[in-house]
Specification:
Strand order of the largest sheet: 1-2-3-4-5-6-7
Order of helices and strands: HEHEHEHHEHEHEHEHHHHHH
Oligomer: single chain
CATH architecture of the largest domain: Alpha-Beta Barrel
Largest sheet: 7 strands, parallel
Number of strands: 7
Bound molecules: flavin mononucleotide
Radius of gyration: 19 Å
Helix content: 40-55%
CATH superfamily of the largest domain: Aldolase class I
Shape: globular
Distance between the termini: 33 Å
Number of domains: 2
CATH topology of the largest domain: TIM Barrel
Length: about 300
């Protein structure tokens, strides 16, 4: 699965992944539920993103928000627009998310969760999943939540085994994933720090997870999906990597011109992708791309 990534897994990027490496499932960026709205809970941009689904690939919408009623209303709205799967974000570790009871902040008050998860599951007529961290500050907290998720009929859990307070520090501890797999019947999708085909093989073997969700590694290198499936070279040469990265970014640039306004916005969005690239061998081109002051300069650097 391609992980939900705010600022990155917009419809243009998802379209590129569908046309090239075909992940089994692709998530939207999180869609923030407006708790104060009287009518529509989702923004016009998010509504357009859902409605853009081709029908061929199910649109998997991730919601982030708090409170039973707003979440239920947003889930209904997303389904009316064509969402074929709803995912609830219970992991985001940043800012207002965690100061309120939203995203990873939901894990601060687990006693409130039964009142949200059950009704939300009932309102979702298609399949429903949860993406979650291992805990708020206790990496074992997830174990205490499994009975609730199981009895509510959650279809699968995508687990990023860091705590919320940990943010991105340290490493994803997949021994927690293995423990979760052993302790529940729901399919568990392992997420976190899978950057190579070897990582993927190791995590699947060590955890017994049903599948993998790839975030930063796949945004940096979409062919990671193909490398894991044995359909692309595991360790390509530097020339091949540079040429793969160039054709990826040029293809995204073309798509971004269609959905974003003006060269500077397109350039900013492309740089967000480049900032996920950290391969040592790409360091020269990455530096040049980050320094580009115009879209023309960015594209020229790719074409050299
Ligand atoms: C820039 C960025 C944006 C993200 N946006 C979201 C998001 O919208 N929803 C979500 O559940 N997780 C989000 N995440 C977390 C990723 O989905 C994923 O769980 C995390 O990066 C760990 O996986 P990885 O090591 O494969 O990247 C985001 C992460 C990053 C770095």
């Amino acid at each position: 699965m391609l992980a939900p990534m705010q600022g990155l897994t917009n419809r243009a990027v998802r379209d590129y992944f569908i046309k090239t490496v075909q992940p089994d499932t692709l998530f939207t960026e999180f869609m923030q539920v407006n708790a104060a709205a009287e009518k529509r809970r989702l923004t016009p941009v998010d509504r357009r993103d859902i409605a853009s689904g081709s029908g061929e690939f199910p649109v998997v919408v991730q919601l982030v928000g708090h409170g039973r009623e707003p979440l239920v209303a947003a889930a209904i709205e997303a389904q009316e627009l064509g969402a074929r799967h709803i995912n609830l974000n219970m992991g985001c570790p940043y800012g207002r998310m965690t100061s309120g009871l939203t995203g990873g902040g939901m894990l601060k008050r687990p006693e409130l969760l039964p009142d949200i998860i059950g009704p939300l599951r009932d309102a979702v007529k298609c399949s429903f999943s949860i993406k979650i961290r291992a805990g708020y500050d206790d990496p074992q907290q997830i174990l205490s939540l499994l009975p609730l998720f199981e009895s509510a009929g959650v279809d699968f859990i995508a687990l990023h085994p860091r705590t919320v307070v940990q943010e991105y520090k340290g490493v994803a501890d997949h021994s927690v994933t293995a423990e979760v797999v052993r302790n529940c019947k729901m399919p568990i999708i392992a997420n976190g720090d899978i950057r190579t085909a070897e990582d993927a093989e190791r995590v699947l073997k060590e955890t017994g997870a049903t599948g993998l969700m790839l975030g930063r590694g796949a945004i940096a290198d979409p062919l990671l999906f193909a490398r894991i499936r044995g359909k692309a070279e595991k360790s390509p040469s530097v020339e091949t990597m540079v040429s793969e990265a160039s054709s990826y970014l040029l293809a995204i640039s073309e798509r971004y011109r269609e959905i974003f306004c003006g060269d500077m916005q397109v350039l900013g969005k492309l740089k967000a992708i480049v900032s996920q690239m950290d391969e040592d061998v790409l360091v020269r081109i990455i530096k040049e791309l980050k320094r580009a002051k115009s879209l023309a300069a960015f594209e020229a650097a790719l074409s050299r």
